[in-house]
Amino acid sequence: MKRPGGRLGGYADEVAAAMRRRKEVRRPRVRVRLDHGEARLLDDRTPETGRLLTLARELIGEPPAEEPPREPPREPQDAG
Amino acid sequence: MPASANDLAVRYLLELSTDIRGALLLDRDGELLASAGQLPADDLAAVGQRLVEAAHGLSRNGRPRGAQDGAQVAIEIDVLSTGGAMFLLGEDDLMMACVTNRNVHPGLIFYDMHAVLRDLERAAAAESLREQRGTR
What does the alpha-carbon distance between residue B61 and residue A39 come to, in Å, rounded to a whole number? Predict the structure, then answer.
């Protein structure tokens, strides 16, 4: 069957999907499995997730929280 | 001082997988039994205690239907962070945590951790059997 976007369109779709998957995997997350049950992802906003992420960062040796990068204070420029 | 079975177990885990940077072994009360490898946390005992508390909280909330109150729930937690991953496994009376780089297969890491905890249990059972025979 011929694809609507042609061969190049197919490649572009695949690359976009791969990029999307890569981005998803990179997001910090916590997954839990109890007593051989199904593994489930914890909601990002729950306190357990925050607590476990903090502990993981401490053990990994990574800075505790991601703060937005601060811009260095600008020096006043001389008008002349 | 000769290495204890717990020390040997965490060192063995590091040998099983080159992806594992560091590991620690705790009892279910949060006491640190052994650690090995690169674990940059300042106070490992306190981190271990908090890990066990967090795992207890999760296993209480997600206790399977029919599980008895006193029974220990087996728990597997994997945390993916920007700089690496942390895995926590609780079985019977022991908990084991390890940190790895990000590009690992969680199933394989848990497989190795299960194997090491099983070996420790076997060693403890053999030791108690030896003690019983020795007292008779």
Answer: 15
**Chain B hits for A29, Cβ within 8 Å:** 79-80
This model of the complex carries an ipTM of 0.84
**Average pLDDT value over all residues in chain B:** 87
- Return the SS3 of B21: strand
Shortest CA distance from B57: residue in chain A: A48
Cross-chain residue pair A51–B50, CB shorter than 8 Å: yes
Q: What percent of chain B is predicted at pLDDT more than 70? A: 88
Query: Could you tell me the pTM of the whole model?
Result: 0.77
As beta bridge partners, residue B96 has: B25, B89
The C-alpha of B41 sits at a distance from chain A's nearest C-alpha, in angstroms, of 5
Q: CA nearest B24 in A: which residue?
A: A59
User: Residue type for B85, please?
Assistant: A
Nearest to B74 among A25, A35, A59 (CB): A35
Whether B48 contacts B26, CB under 8 Å: yes
d(CA A40, CA B48): 23
**Beta-bridge mates of residue B25:** B34, B96
Tell whether the model's pLDDT for residue B41 goes beyond 60.
yes
